[in-house]
Amino acid sequence: MNIETKLLVRYGIPGWYFILWLFILSKFSGVDIEKVSGLSSDILSSVVLTVLGVPIGYILYQIYFITTHAEHKNSTPNWNIFVFENIDREDRDYVSGRYSHMLRGVHEAGVLQMTFFLSAVSVFIIPAIIRINSSEFEKLSILVAFSFSMLNIVLALAVNKNYRFKQEELKQFIDGIKQSVKK
Question: Which are the contacts of 52, defined by CB distance < 8 A and separation ≥ 6?
């Protein structure tokens, strides 16, 4: 995959998933998307998912980085200095590439986990906000909203397990490199 495709997928998946839940929410809430937009819901869904998914996914990534910045504040610059000062030139590219790949995996799992959580919360918040101005959302039952939220929470918990695994794997990689340099 080239770099543009990787970025499209990296930012698109969280955004597309989040928008998908908004469409599901609108279907169960009784909002007629075709009437509001003048387009068929299939065409509108495709256009919105394609066009807005990547920017929304990018925004979700930025929210993730803002919320986890304190946790990773100095780790990458310190790691880069360590690698430059302690790893031979011929091994440096491999070590840096592997670190970058593993850190990207941690971030991807973290953003996905956050997307599931935000989707779970949005199932309750968005109808509550719109309900103030419209009676269209009266059809959305608490049971349906609770079911959607629970599904997203279960997915978030599953991804959290993967997130913690990837964090531990990265930590072991860093510790292993540091131990091999000490020898």
Answer: 15, 19
Tens digit of pLDDT for each residue in 47-66?
766 788 888 889 988 888 88
What are the structure tokens assigned to 112, written together?
A: 């996905």
What are the CA-CA distances from residue 70 to residues 75, 120, 146 (Å)?
10, 25, 33
**CB of 111 closer than 8 Å to CB of 60:** yes
> Are 103 and 173 in contact, with CB atoms under 8 Å apart?
no
DSSP-based three-state secondary structure for 140: coil
- Residue 31: which of 142, 143, 139, 145 has the closest Cα? 139
Find the length of the chain. Answer: 183
Q: How far apart are CA 106 and CA 169, in angstroms?
A: 9
Q: For residue 108, how many C-alpha atoms fall within 13 Å in the half-sphere facing its CB?
A: 16
User: CA dist 91 to 39, 97, 105, 134, 177, Å?
Assistant: 56, 10, 21, 62, 11
Q: Which two tokens stand for residue 123?
A: 């199932």
pTM for the predicted model, two decimal places: 0.77
Q: Look at residues 67, 19, 13, 73 and name the one whose alpha carbon lies nearest to residue 46.
A: 19
Q: CA angle, 169 as apex, 78 and 3 as ends, to 5°?
A: 70
Q: Residue 59 and residue 15: Cα distance in Å, rounded? A: 8
Look up residue 138 and give its two tokens: 């009266």
